[in-house]
Amino acid sequence: MNPTVARSIKKLNILILFFSILLLMLNIFLPLVAIKNPSDPTQTQYFNLNAMRYSDEKQLEELKKDIDEINLYLWVVIIIGIVSFIGLIIKLSNKLNIISNLLMIIGATNIIFCSLSCVYYMFFIKNVIDLNSVLLASIIGPFRVSYISLIFFILLLLASVAYTGVLIPSFLKDLKKSKKSQETKDQKKKDKKTSDSIETNKEKEAVKTQSDGKKYKIKAWQAERLKDFNEPVEKQKEETEKLLFSNHSKKAKEDPLEKKPEPIIEAEKQTKEEIKTPFQKENIKKPEARQFDSETKLSEDTKETKSFEKALTSAIDKKKGISNNTKPEGKQILPQKFNVKCPKCTYIFEAEKNPEGVTKIKCPKCGKEGIIK
Amino acid sequence: MEEFKNEELEEDFFLSHRQKEKKKEKILDQDFEKAKEIKQNPVRKKEDKYTKKKPFLKLGIILLIFTIICFIILDALPWMYIKFDASNDGTSQVEYYYDKNFVITNNEEQNETINNFFESINSNIYMGINPTDFSSLYYHGKYIFYSMIAIGIVFTIFAIFDKKRNLSIETSTIIHTLFAGIVAGLCIYFIFLSVKFLASVILIVLNYRFINPILPNLVIVYLAPMIVLFIMTGVLKVTFSVIKSNFKIFEKIKEGKKPKKSFYNYGYRGKTR
Lengths: 373, 273
Description:
Largest interface: A-B, 57 and 61 residues
Radius of gyration of chain B: 37 Å
Shape of chain A: elongated
Strand content of chain A: 5-15%
Mean pLDDT of chain A: 76
Order of helices and strands of chain A: HEEHHHHEHHHHHEEEE
Strand content of chain B: 5-15%
Largest sheet of chain A: 3 strands, antiparallel
Oligomer: heterodimer
Number of helices of chain A: 10
Number of strands of chain A: 7
Strand order of the largest sheet of chain A: 2-1-3
Low-confidence stretches of chain A: 278-282, 291-299, 326-331
Radius of gyration of chain A: 43 Å
Low-confidence stretches of chain B: 47-51, 259-268
Mean pLDDT of chain B: 78
């Protein structure tokens, strides 16, 4: 849900709750009706809801029933208001979406109870006016007290109408968005599957051609590499022996820690550099050096080719895996939000910029058109 | 020759060992220097205001405190104080304190149950309150407070559990709002019951013409119900503010960072400013 929409829903919900609680209290608190004393018409006796309950007059009892019914509706409005508020909070948490949606929809039903209570209160006023013996209570001047609550009832109704007016379109938008996102996800999945199948076929073909055509080259390179792999070890042995025997007397004086890098490492570096060259040229991924250990010095050609093929396939698989991981799954480039100041009226408003291309914007206050680059 | 070779090998071994030790020392020195720098200039990690803020979890304790206070008030304080002139001259005044069971506490002789405040007039119509309202308020209020105490205990246990297990913000706030919503409903119900007393005060003022000839200079104060009513409105306010704060937490999480400001990239009709 859009945070601005959520904020407006929250405000309207608070308004509904406030008005409903206030009206409930006013219905008990205010003296709603009055009866003129038959002996002395200047004296009027006031009745609130509780006083109406204890009176013996039938007319007041009927009026009291109307107010009780209105209070019941108001109670329903309060409970629904609290429930919908909780639903709104759950909705914002992006958890328990079904429950939150259900609670919010229940909140939308408030309009029915609000309108019912408003209508019943109007009927109550009309009934009191129709009665000759009972009057609408007025504390200060001619203004009737029950009209105060009528104003609040109308405000409550308006708030509930606005609440449903904001809630239902946002729900429909969310539904549309969710449908669209599902469709796009499905399409992407399908595209991925097709592209992957095509890629795998192509790669297999390429590997086959490369492996068949350049088998001879690879074999030659392997033989050279194995030679190089053995040479540095022998060289290193010789060099160390030489160093040990020739510079034995000097070693004690010299700091042994300031030694030059060992010849083994240099030799290894050389071999590594040599290993890289044939594959870089041919755009084939380098196989791991450890797969060709001294134990697997293959005298037979068949063994060499099999191991090398295995290495190639593993390298391709790895490459594929990396490429699949690097691809953004279902990520959409979202439009950036900017606060934009209108040059004409200096009104600051929020605008969304498309990530691709130029976006046209219009000032909501003065209507000046512009472009964000 | 063999002995010589062995000696050489031993020497090499010691040399390599020393090399390793020197490397270790170097690494340790570097780490020590880094630690020193961090100690001298501690870098404070900027905490995300939106993600790491948990809801106010002391609602349970507040509830417990307030409900216990309310219980004490309802049991200890007198529910009604009445003062009126016994004679028309205004020389002698009568004062009564009524408790929750509508028994006069300051006069041991009048310990009878009363169905009407004043036997001479039908006070229920003029005052808009009946002795049964007292008993009903106490009866309903008792259960409301019991349930609120239970909610308070459960909520404090939940808060402790949340602290130990470190639950996610979403779950803790949802549970928090649920509890707050139930408490709000109970508070509204109690206010609905106790507003009668406030309404009766207004009705007495309005119907003073009818009451004054029989009970001159009548003064009525509903002590305990009024105090508890105000406390419960305060609790209601707290619960609603808690719900609002929970909403704000999610709102801030959803909004995240504020949108960037770009006053200089703005142009209109194809021309940049």
